[in-house]
Amino acid sequence: MIIVRVYRGVADHFPIRVSEWVMVWPALGMWLALQIDINMFTTSPSFTTLAEWGSQGTWALVVAASAICRLAALTINGTFKGFAFSPQIRAAASIVGVVVWSQISLGFFVAYMSSGGALSGAVVWSTLVLLEIANVHRSWSDVGKNARDR
Hints:
The protein is an all-alpha fold. The protein has eight helices and no strands. It has helices spanning 2-13, 18-22, 24-36, 40-43, 48-53, 56-79, 86-115, 119-149. 31% of the residues are buried. The model has no long low-confidence stretch (mean pLDDT 89).
């Protein structure tokens, strides 16, 4: 019964939460890439700054935690309709995303400026920051809508 409830909750909210669901992919994908390509940080100068800030394993844990936060927030949002703090939890997951992706973007930008890394990395990763900022805004608008509906 709980599986059906979770499925229905997720399926019912998926169309309006699609940008939040999309953000699960870069976190899981980057975690997987960091696990599979154990030399990723030493292969490209674009990762120089990130390697100075933390090991590849540490960054893998950070992006995995980001994915888990997002999945938990979206599951709670869809499954427990009467739960008043769903939008705040979604906003918190998006804020975690903003922090993670902004640090990765900054790392790529600093590596571009100082170590000969590729500027394209900063551009692409900062796009995720912009999407997360939009997700934060959308979540906080839902907080206001929920307050008005009560």
